[in-house]
Amino acid sequence: MRRTVQFTLNGERVEAQVAPHETLVEVLREAFGLYGARESCGQGLCGCCTVLVNGTAVSGCLYLGTLAEGARIETVEGGETLDAVQEAFIERAAFQCGFCTPGFVLMTRQLLAENADPSEDEIRHYLSGNLCRCAAYPEIIEAVKLAARKKASR
Amino acid sequence: MKRATQGIETNQVGRSVPRLESWLKVTGRAEYVHNLRLPGMLYGKIYRSSVAHGRIKRIDTDAARAMPGVHSVVTGAEVKTVVPDPYYGPAFHDQPVLALDKVRYVGEPVAVVLASDPHVAEEAVHLISAEYEELPAVYDEVEAVTSKAIVHEALKPAGTFPDLKHLKGVKNTNVALDFRLRRGDAAKAMAKAERVFEHRFRTQQVMHTPLEPLVSVAESTEDTLTIHTASQSPSFVRIEIARLLGWAENRVRVRVPFLGGGFGAKLYIKLEALVAVLSLLAKRPVKISLSMEEQFFTITKHASTFRIKSGVSGGRLVARECAVWWNGGAYADIGPRVTQKSGFTAPGPYDVQDVSIDSYALYTNLPPAGALRGFGIPQLVWAYESHTDMIARELGVDPVAFRRRNLLREGRPQATGTVMRDAAIEKVLERTASLIEWEKPLERGSGPVRRGRGIALGFKACIANTTSLAAVSVNADGSCTVYVSTVDMGQGSDTAMAQIAAEVLALPTEAVTVVHSDTDVTPFDMATLGSRSLFHTGNAVKLAAEDARDQLAGLRKELGLPADCAVADVFRKKYGMRAGSVLGVGNFIPPYTPPDENGQTDNATPFWMVGACGVELEVDTETGHVRVLRLVNVADVGTPINPRIVETQLSGASIMQLGFTLFEKMQFDAEGQLRNASLAEYKIPGLLDVPAEIVNEAVVAEQRTGPFGAKGVGETATFAVSPAIANAVHDAVGVRLTSLPLSAEAVFEALQRK
Q: What is the pTM of this model?
């Protein structure tokens, strides 16, 4: 039943034995011990399970692990040091319990890759699929703006 | 930033230190029970009741047991082999680990399938069936008072908490608690009043929806049990599990890492008894992770009905009668405490001579209700602040001026008789009025979209009588470790506790680490709830740090070292090498006087929280849609330990309450079936719901009994949001809504009726 799936995970070539029903979140957790993408609503509505597949955000709780074959997978655990987005989230106090934070960080990375200087309205719309029950939303908006400035000055 | 508080030059307190766990959280490495896997672990999936009230005739688990990969199936009968009397709860021992004899709401746990593969366990749950003899059910809290449908045939008070000692067992009634307060003679004063106003308000049942759904893991040996759980109350869990099993407390260990949100959902005891029993039965570690859907069947916020009546003479409130019915669902959880603790503030922050309060906790056949960010206060403020506005407008008086006239001021007795101290009610009202620019004219619009402004003010007593202990270790190199059982669920308690210890020990906050709750290691703490931790545990940490500091001073003296000798040198001199540590301990329990039979006490609370909200909004009269343009939150939080974190608590709490005000609602059908148990159908606030402008302000204040002048803040900005919005809707379009939520449909229908 399980088949070998090969992909690039945070810059490294890897392979895993994946059952057909397993989601990407399960593969990351069971095979690689990565917990940054986490299932919460289980319906692809909250964004806690966000993973970048070939640079595009997907809901890892709905995305089948076997579809990772040959793909470039990025999770919040990637990177040697904090990037501009993570630094900005810390500096703007843009999280409380931290459960949704990896999803917001990845979604913000994708936003800034597409749009280096988003307006507040663009930020709100782009990140509207990520939920934060602690409601650190005003701080998240500020963090995204700060991250854009940080990236521009680097 | 340097400030002087209580005569001490401070460096660490009052500094907006970034959360100590920041790196962990932005890199996805923070520890949650959600992540935990143990060798040999089984996953449990729950089979739940499909009827609201019924006698269990038969549970058929054969097909599930026969499914390949299933380890076992457990029902209430198996639970009883481990725990003969398997009923738990903080106020009543009313909730069975798994249903026994009866089910009392749709979604109640009836059986559990265990398997190494959670998908197998889930699949097998679908193979279980049960047959019930259906009984009449009751869902409405007011009907429950007289209903012939009795949810519990007998009531079993737990006798756990000193403030709930008076709970009595009553037979054949759904009233779990009947709290009564009498001050003066409200009926007589009402009869003499120039004008009398009476209104009735309702709030809906909602859910906390922490994004880390409830999760617990238990591992056992022959005579020990370790529970890893997403809990706000590890000390309570240990005591309750030990009680159920008849074990000594030291054989039960409860560990709690970070929580992915709590808001009151993860309080007291939830899945812990179940995983404990399952682990003892299976002799393997057992994990139960609820889905988002299942959370709706586990714990909720009370729906309520509040009838409030006021007598007014010469623009002064002279009498107030309050009757509040709390819909507690099928199990009391902490509902009786909500009923009582919130009950006694039901007359609001006003100086009224003659008051009567009746507050009833009711059992119904709905999912249990407990504490949700405010312990009932948002439900009460919703009613009394809508009522206050309605009175002012009827009298033709400016609503702020009417409040000002009747305000409960410093030094005046509250309805319990307790004199108000360190409660900046007046300042909070004035700052809110000023920030929302109450006196300035408002451009109201003339087309289909109309603007309005509203204000509301609430207050809360902190829970009493509760204890917190703390230990502070200063290590041989001068670094510091804090041991507390306060749980950091996002409110920033780790950072605040570290700041308090650092302040006392003259260390940078970053040199302090906080050990997460582990009942084998960290000392007793009542629970992380009700905005109590910063005050109670914070005071305990301060005492413990002072004890450590004094011990170090003693060592310096003993060794003939100067007072400014570095800690590392003190230990080196003492032990001849790098060794040793000092351990300071702190035990904090504030004074409290239990209420008498009329609810009167000279000391109802260790401190008061005060929160007000100002709102400017627009209403689309063609759709009923309400859009909040400006949201002003003003609070008395004492002197903030970490101003930035305080601001995020105020802001976050207000946005959460915005959801409860405008759209969140658990919708039940006539059979008690919940129709919207998922984030697809139960909407919580997202980025597009956040008002364009939010202003948060902590007024300059000091809680003299708090650590460095501080007090709790987690709930304060929830209090006044709902009535401020309803008052602003009325201001905008002249319709008065008395039921939450203020959905577009509700506003539109009210506009049609106008």
A: 0.97
